[in-house]
Amino acid sequence: MTRHPASESDIGAATFLNAPYIGLEEVEPGMVVVGGAPHDSTHTSRFGTRMGPRGIREGSLGLAARLANASGEGLIDLASGVRLTPPPTSRLVDVGDFNVYPTDVMKTTEGIAGGVAEVVRRGGFSVCLGGDHYIGYPSCLGYTRAVSEARKDIRIGYIHIDGHLDFRDDTALWGKYNHGTNARRISEIDLVSPSNMVWIGVQGWSEEEPILAIERHGGLIFTAADVHRMGPEEVARQAGERASAGCDYIYMSVDIDFIDTGFFPATGSVVNDAITTQIMATILRGLARYPIGAMDLVEVSPRIDPTGRSVMLSTELLLAHLAPRIFEVGP
Ligand SMILES: [Mn+2]
Asked: What is the pLDDT of residues 53-103, one digit of tens each?
């Protein structure tokens, strides 16, 4: 049977940007590898982020169709004039979803960490799609496990883009492993250097202990107000410099609730910081200059936004950072 060319957004199985769907054992060096972590039982408010990976994949198909219809010529960014051309062999692949177990957090942790570690071991750039933000911890854990196999003395910086610190140590109801403790757990990974941990975009109310703990560790916090005051380019620059200073690579964790809920409705936590999708894209683009070794994008909850625009915007945000890794970028 001849397969229908996937040149329309409502035809074909959904992978991210219609990338080839491959097994973990087929990952090769230089590939940008999207893997899903459809897990939200460690979310503490509005559930639904387990639909995130599938929703983001579906939301990406509109742009995938435009790329397919451009028949090798690529697409031009009207703002910059930059042309994105897909290479003859796709650097972007989708390995489907990692193993998660909704009632067993530790088994889920190992499922995601094991999958990400395998991607990294094979030389892939891992892009783990959440899921609630807890999955950032197993994703980072898998990344650090794999890179430490190659070299024991490696040091990893960390950038946390989020409306929240996620640095609580423990909570009465949810314990030590949930989407409010993920950055704290990451700070406990041996390879991660706590003084190279940087937060971008925190807002609202926080308990004092996490702030004091970050100060004690020498971490650096840029609030959403700092982003407005300094501008997104400058925040990205200072964050990238700090996270990479004395480190080999940076792990980057991107919580979509950095963006004001008015601009990006599909997320569990309601955020009121006037951060637009454009500001977030500028930061993600700026950070592409730094040695990011692996990343996640989390807290997209498609059902909260029945208009579907949030999952489409997720594609734009991912591409703001990933375009130079996926496409030939030129005039
Ligand atoms: Mn978060």
From this structure: 999 999 999 999 888 888 778 899 898 898 989 888 899 999 999 999 999
- The reported pLDDT for the residue numbered 236 is 98
Helices (H) and strands (E) in the chain, counts: 10, 11
Rounded to whole angstroms, what are the CA distances from 35 to 93, 122, 130, 296, 330? 9, 14, 9, 9, 28
Cα 274 to ligand 1 centre (Å): 17
The Cα 18–Cα 59 span in angstroms is 11
d(CA 119, CA 121): 6
Cα-based torsion angle of the residue sequence 128, 133, 139, 141 in order, rounded to the nearest 10 degrees:
170
All structural domains of the chain? 28-330 (3.40.800.10)
CA 39 – ligand 1 centroid, Å: 14
Amino acid at 22: I
Beta strand spans in the chain (E): 32-37, 75-76, 83-85, 92-97, 125-130, 156-161, 192-202, 220-223, 249-255, 292-298, 328-330
Query: Could you tell me the distance, in angstroms and rounded to a whole number, from the CA of residue 331 to the centre of ligand 1?
Result: 36
288 close to 294: Cβ distance less than 8 angstroms: no
Interatomic CA distance for residues 139 and 131, integer angstroms = 11
- List all residues 6 or more positions away from 281 whose beta carbon is below 8 Å from its beta carbon: 316, 317, 320
pLDDT in tens, 212-246: 999 999 999 999 999 999 999 999 999 999 999 99
Q: Among 298, 297, 295, 236, which residue's Cα sits nearest to residue 269?
A: 298
- Say how many Å lie between the CA of residue 17 and the centre of ligand 1: 25
Distance 297 CA to ligand 1 centre (A): 10
Q: Give the residues of the chain that fall short of pLDDT 70.
A: 1-9
Instruction: Give yes or no for a contact between 189 and 140, defined as CB atoms under 8 angstroms apart.
Output: yes
Predicted TM-score of the model (pTM): 0.96
